[in-house]
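seq as requested:
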Amino acid sequence: MKRLVILGAGESGVGTALLAKAKGYNVFVSDKGKIKEKYKEVLIHNEIEWEEEQHTEVKILNANLVMKSPGIPDKVALIQKLISNNIPVISEIEFASKYTNATIVGITGSNGKTTTASLTHHILKQELNVGLAGNIGDSFAKQILEEDYKNYVLEISSFQLDGIVDFKPNIAVLTNITPDHLDRYDYKFENYINSKFRIALNQTKEDYLIYDADDEVITNWLKQNTIQSTLLPFSLKKTFENGAYLDKENIKITIDNIEIIMPTKNLALEGKHNIKNAMAASTVSHLLKIRKQTIRESLENFHGVEHRLEQVLKINKVQYINDSKATNVNATYYALESMDAPTVWIVGGVDKGNDYTELFPFINEKVKAIICLGVDNEKLMENFSNMVDVIVETQFMSEAVKIAYKVAEAGDNVLLSPACASFDLFENYEDRGRQFKNAVRNL
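C-alpha cells:
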C-alpha cells in the first residue's frame, strides 16, 4: 500500500487526504500549527491519521509521496530532507489531476486570477458542467471525489505550480506577471517568472496558452523560451489574427477564423484591467464553444469577487471601498488608477520586498491622506511621508477606519488597498477585508 503524507491540514490538504484514501493510499496528515475544528472533524470522521502542532519525522520520512500545502516554502529543513531522500514532494493540483479526465482551464498570474477564474466559471456554468477550484473555493481533490465535474476552472498560484510534475491544463491563462512573493524566490524576479510559466510546461500544440500581450515580462519570456502550446494573446493596444483585442468599444476575439465581438460598454466590472480579465474569460469560453449571447450576458451580470474593489457603504457622501485582496503593489496600482475622487488610502502589512515607485504618480494626483496599518510601517513612512500632508500609523483596523472617517470629506473615497500580505495583524486577506467592512458598518 503506497503511503501518502500530507503536510498542512487546510482546504487542499484535507481534500487530498479524502481523495487519496478513496484511491487506496495509506494516508497521514501532519500540520505544524493547530488544525481548524472543521477540518479535524472531517479527518476523524473519515478515520484518517493526523497530528497537529508538530511534524514527527519518522512518520513522514517513510512516505512514498508527499503532498505539501502551498504555504510551506521549499527551503524548510523537512522539505529539503524529503528531497534528498528522493521522496517526491508535489502539490494538490498535481496529485488530484491524475484522477480526472475533465477538461481543465488553469489560470495564473500575479493579479486578476481570482476575478478571471470566477468570471470564466460564471460564463461556462451557464452551458457546461463545471467546477471552480485551486486557490479558491472547495479543494480540487475533494471536488474530483465528490462531484466529478466534466470541466474545471482552476485558479493556480505560483506555489502550487512549483509542485507540479505532469500536470497540464488544456487551456492555460496567464493574466500578467509583476514582482510578487519574491521572499519565496530568493528575491530573484526571474525565478518567480519561470514558476508562473510552469503552467505551460507540459502543454502540447493541442493545448492553448492565453496571455496578456501588453505585459513585457510575458512577451520577453516567450521570445527567449520555446513552448509547445498554441498561443492566443489578448491586448488593449495591439491587433491579432488569432486572439483578442480592443477595437474602439468592442472586444474582438478570433480563433481559427471564427470571430466574435463583445461590447465593453455594459461590462459589470469597471477599469482597464477588468477589460483584460473579460478578454481572457471570453477567449476561454469561445474555445469551449459557449454561445456568444451567453458570454455577453454573463459579462454584463457578473459582479466581481469579495475583497476586490468591493464598494462597501457610502457614509456622509464618502465611499468606502474594500480591496483587501490587493496583496501586492501591482494590484494596488489598479485600485488607485481606478479612483476618480480624492482618496484616503489604508495601506500596509507584511512587505514582500515591495517597490512602491510605480504608485507615486497616483499618490501625488489622487491620495490626500495615508493610513499605515501594519506591525512595521517604517518603509511606508520613508516612501510616502513627504508626498501627503496626513500620514498616520495604527495597528488596529477599527482605529484606521475611525481616522479615515475624520479625515475624509464629502465626495472622497476611503480605500483599503494594502499592497502587502496580511499575516502580521490578520489571519488572511479575507479576515482583513471583513474587519474593514465591520468597522465601516459600525461608524
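Residues 272-287 form the longest helix (16 residues).
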